[in-house]
């Protein structure tokens, strides 16, 4: 039997735009009904999305359901017009306010590492703001991509939400279209391609990128607690998390004590053989497995350092005595390798951070309010997490996004409404009295 010819990207965008022009997506009731359907999709099909561990449930499904619930609870308030004071020369009968309006057809392009959450959380914001959405899952997570392509049309308004599967050719074709916003999550090289394509129309972009997120460990902290929290934030999803602590920055004495504490923390989390733990993830593909294996000789192995290419399992690895110019410190690791780099103290740690690209997240473990305050004031990062990586992104009322090389724009909760809306300025002056 012949398969139906898939709709071309241009036709998809045109079809969604035609629906948007009817005004169907604008009423609050339509938006909340779509969000409720999305919630049903997740609760009825969660395990079908292609990952099955408790970790996947927590980071993909539960996270997105929370985002939906938070949005449903607050959307009316977020969308309320905001009055603005009117200058005296316009008269006391003039009034002014801002009101949100949806942008139109938005494109959401996503990576493979949290393939459901990173697609659905922006979709929640785009729909809540009243837009039509073309969603492009990552071809590197084909099971989730296929599941989303099957489920989203089954639950949502198919003339408003479309899933376009594929890789570079399909994304390139979509980028050639006139869109009203492009929301891209992934690496900075492709981020630049997105920005260049957007410049043609010009279309606003949000770039959720990555980079090396440092974790500064101060003297005098409880290193058992630090190690446990560092290890669970780092080795979640086998380190393939954009906000995972990329490397540890600390003084030499603290480093020496932290090494065995990290080895114990890894064993507590995943047992003596992490490859046998159902909680420990795998590397997405052989290419990344080989790339990560090539970083293992950048330092002295404290724990881990082994891998099995056939099963794409790379042990949770901590490297000590790492030179700042070594390969592992030149790229975003995006895998289960945690280098420890030493600096004499806080001043040098701040310089070390500021000498490099602005990170997506910066983590600080310090008992000193003075140290925490100095780092907040003297460094720049997308987010700043004291004591618990990467929990800041689970706070629905905080914006999530990067700065500089780690991205531009933000989302989650009300910040998604900001991203996927135009904030229109309105002035109203009565026609009478005529003065
Ligand atoms: P990826 O390879 O899945 O690519 C992301 C998307 O870009 C995919 O949908 C892919 O089809 C598309 N793409 C790839 N090449 C393209 C091209 N030439 N033209 C147009 N589109 C193209 O994922 P990735 O980029 O390897 O993801 C990992 C990176 O993403 C890391 O740097 C990580 O830190 C970052 N990341 C950031 C966040 C965040 O929220 N800030 C979240 C997750 C990952």
From TrEMBL:
Keywords from the named record: Oxidoreductase
PROSITE patterns (alphabetical): ALDEHYDE_DEHYDR_CYS, ALDEHYDE_DEHYDR_GLU
Pfam families: Aldedh
SUPFAM superfamilies with a match to the protein in the record: ALDH-like
Catalytic-site annotation from UniProt: 208
Domain Aldehyde dehydrogenase: 6-426
CDD domains registered for this protein in UniProt: ALDH_F3-13-14_CALDH-like (cd07087)
InterPro entries: Ald_DH/histidinol_DH, Ald_DH_C, Ald_DH_CS_CYS, Ald_DH_CS_GLU, Ald_DH_N, Aldehyde_DH_dom, Aldehyde_DH_NAD(P)
Family note: Belongs to the aldehyde dehydrogenase family.
Protein's UniProt name: Aldehyde dehydrogenase
């Amino acid at each position: 039997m012949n398969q139906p010819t898939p709709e071309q990207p241009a036709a998809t965008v045109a079809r969604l735009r035609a629906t948007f022009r009817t005004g169907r997506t604008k009423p609050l009731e339509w938006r909340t009904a779509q969000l409720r359907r999305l919630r049903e999709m997740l609760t009825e099909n969660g395990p079908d999305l292609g990952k099955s561990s408790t970790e996947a449930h927590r980071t993909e499904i539960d996270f997105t359901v929370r985002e939906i619930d938070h949005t449903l609870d607050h959307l009316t308030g977020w969308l309320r017009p905001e009055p603005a004071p009117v200058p005296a020369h316009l008269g006391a009968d003039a009034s002014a306010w801002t009101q949100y309006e949806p942008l139109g057809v938005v494109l959401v392009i996503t990576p493979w590492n949290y393939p459901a959450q990173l697609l659905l959380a922006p979709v929640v914001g785009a729909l809540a703001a009243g837009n039509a959405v073309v969603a492009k899952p990552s071809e590197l997570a084909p099971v989730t991509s296929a599941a989303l392509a099957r489920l989203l049309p089954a639950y949502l308004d198919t003339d408003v939400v479309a899933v376009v599967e594929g890789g570079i050719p399909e994304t390139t074709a979509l980028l050639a279209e006139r869109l009203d916003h492009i929301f891209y999550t992934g690496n900075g090289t492709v981020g630049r391609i997105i920005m260049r394509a957007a410049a043609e129309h010009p279309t606003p972009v949000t770039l959720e990128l990555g980079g090396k997120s440092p974790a500064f460990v101060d003297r005098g902290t409880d290193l058992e607690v630090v190690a446990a929290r560092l290890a669970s934030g780092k080795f979640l999803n086998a380190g393939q998390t954009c906000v995972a602590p990329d490397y540890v920055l600390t003084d030499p004495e603290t480093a020496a004590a932290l090494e065995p504490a990290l080895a114990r923390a890894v064993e507590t989390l995943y047992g003596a053989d992490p490859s046998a733990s159902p909680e420990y993830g795998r590397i997405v593909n052989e290419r990344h497995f080989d790339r990560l294996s090539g970083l293992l000789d950048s330092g002295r192995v404290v724990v881990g350092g082994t891998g099995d290419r056939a099963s794409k399992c790379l042990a949770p690895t901590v490297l000590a005595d790492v030179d700042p110019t070594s390969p592992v410190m030149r790229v975003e690791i995006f895998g289960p390798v945690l280098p420890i780099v030493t600096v004499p103290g806080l001043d040098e740690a701040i310089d070390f951070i500021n000498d490099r690209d602005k990170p997506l997240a910066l983590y600080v473990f310090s008992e000193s309010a003075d140290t925490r305050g100095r780092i907040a004031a003297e460094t720049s990062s997308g987010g700043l997490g004291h004591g618990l990586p990467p929990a800041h992104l689970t706070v629905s009322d905080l914006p999530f996004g990067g700065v500089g090389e780690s991205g531009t724009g933000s989302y989650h909760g009300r910040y998604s409404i900001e991203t996927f809306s135009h904030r229109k300025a309105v002035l109203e002056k009565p026609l009478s009295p005529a003065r």
